[in-house]
Amino acid sequence: MTVATTDPTPASGEMAGYGHRDVQPADVTLRDLEWTDLTRLAELEQELFADDAWSEATWWSELAGRPRRDYVVAVTPDGGIAGYAGLDVSGDVADVMTVATASGAQGRGIGRLLLVELVRRAVDRDVEAVLLEVRADNDTARRLYDRAGFEVISVRRRYYQPGDVDALVMRLLVPKGDA
Ligand SMILES: CC(C)(COP(=O)(O)OP(=O)(O)OC[C@H]1O[C@@H](n2cnc3c(N)ncnc32)[C@H](O)[C@@H]1OP(=O)(O)O)[C@@H](O)C(=O)NCCC(=O)NCCS
Fold this sequence. Notes:
The chain is of the alpha+beta class. The protein has a single domain, classed as Aminopeptidase, CATH 3.40.630.30. Helices cover 25% and strands 31% of the residues. The chain has helices at residues 38-49, 56-64, 110-124, 139-147; strands at residues 29-32, 69-75, 81-90, 93-101, 129-135, 151-160, 165-173. It has a seven-stranded mixed sheet with strand order 1-2-3-4-5-7-6, sandwiched between helices.
């Protein structure tokens, strides 16, 4: 299956929550992560994830993990990074490693665009399910995943420390042959 990476349309009907909407994130295009992005990604991590931020060294390691790791960035017309997301694909399962939108670009559909692209890539790689973990108190991310059709399949109690915050494990089933 080949779909242009700039096309936010779901690869198939699996993301029914978004399939019939007509929201276009303003002025971003998607491309694969490149090594020249890593310094900026480490800065964005600090801004978005604070104590859990990935360092530039971690990003180098993630980039070296290709093709099992598969990262995409959303780029503005001036070349700035508005968001990024990635997968770990192993056998029949793809795990969402991260989805993030720069603070100043949130609420414009970029997170949705990135998630749709991750699912499209997972479908291309013939997985049966896409899994992710999200903090139970991250209402924005939960809404993003709920709307994309992900369902909570288990709860890891007090997984995030400090703070005793539960992790919700969510899954989107991708029927074989759907691509
Ligand atoms: C979660 C995140 C990626 C969403 O990115 P985004 O580009 O703002 O998302 P979108 O604009 O595509 O919106 C996705 C949904 O979240 C909702 N949303 C966006 N910003 C919101 C806000 N501040 N408050 C409540 N809901 C919000 C949108 O309304 C949309 O829901 P809808 O489709 O029902 O309208 C972004 O908030 C982020 O990077 N957060 C910090 C990092 C993070 O927590 N990542 C997830 C780790 S699991």
